[in-house]
Write a structure and sequence with these properties.
heterodimer, A: 195 residues, mainly beta, five-stranded antiparallel beta sheet, elongated, B: 58 residues, alpha+beta, two-stranded antiparallel sheet, 2 helices, 2 strands
Chain lengths: 195, 58
């Protein structure tokens, strides 16, 4: 029985480097095993194993919250602005829009708080500019109070042109104001399964 | 006066139910500085007001 020791192992010998993979140890060993697309001389990392298992290094995850109040006109679907990012691992969140660059299925969550009002509120996930998934619906015209609504869904994104935004709706009959607080009004998402 | 109020003033026969989430009229605001606009108008009898009519409401 023989033992093969190497820092890099190329899998595939296709003329096109993008059809080959390389399994390698980084130049400065850090306890990870890297997997890259391309030949052994210049692989592009797409994932790694560490002591906890596999980690997809380009898997998008983001979180942001609403740090400035918005006035929502009654009976109008209004895009919510999330101007403070908590994290954005793949730089796919900008201008309150999530445009993932990896094709797959994403878990997206969002919530909106409204200062005391009467009537209906809810939020929706918009996909490519159209309402796609509607969240929890609160309707109580008789009692004024703080309102909170949330939406959560798994959605497909093609990794190039598909994008997602969050819109809020309130039907109090007059203007209403959002809560600018990271506990109340936020959005986040993560790649659940790549395609 | 916002768009909802202008439409209600021009078309008093409309009810709040028409503007409800499952109503016949959908207003939208993309938070791009352009304000509210009519995204969908599916009312069976009341016609959609023109921009000139809306701009004339004060």
């Amino acid at each position: 029985m023989s033992t093969v020791k190497s820092k890099k192992l190329q899998v595939g010998t296709d003329a096109s480097a993008s059809n080959n993979f390389t399994i390698y140890q980084p130049a400065t060993p850090d306890g990870t095993l890297r997997i890259g697309v391309g030949n052994a001389d210049s692989p592009t990392e797409v994932g790694r194993f560490n002591s906890n298992g596999y980690v997809a290094t380009n898997a998008p995850a983001f979180g942001a919250w609403h740090d400035t109040t918005q006035t929502l006109t009654t009976s109008s679907f209004t895009k919510l602005l999330f101007t403070t990012e908590e994290f954005d691992t793949n730089s796919n969140f900008a201008s309150s829009r999530f445009t993932p660059t990896v094709e797959g299925y994403y878990q997206i969550n969002a919530a909106m708080g409204i200062v005391p009002m009467n009537g209906t509120i809810f939020i929706s996930i918009y996909k490519n500019g159209s309402e796609f998934k509607r969240g929890s619906f609160t309707s109580d015209a008789a009692t004024a109070g703080s309102r909170h609504t949330q939406v959560s869904s798994i959605v497909y994104a093609n990794g190039s042109t598909d994008y997602f935004e969050i819109y809020g709706y309130q039907g109090s009959g007059s203007n209403a104001t959002t809560r600018n607080d990271q506990r109340w009004t936020y959005v986040n998402g993560v790649l659940a399964k790549a395609v | 006066m916002n768009l909802y109020e202008k439409i209600k003033k021009l078309k008093p026969e409309l009810t709040d139910a028409d503007f409800a989430p499952e109503g016949t009229i959908m207003l939208q605001n993309d938070s791009d500085g352009k304000g509210d606009y009519i995204r969908e108008w599916n009312h069976p009898t009341v016609t959609q007001p023109t921009n000139a009519e809306l701009n004339g409401v004060s």
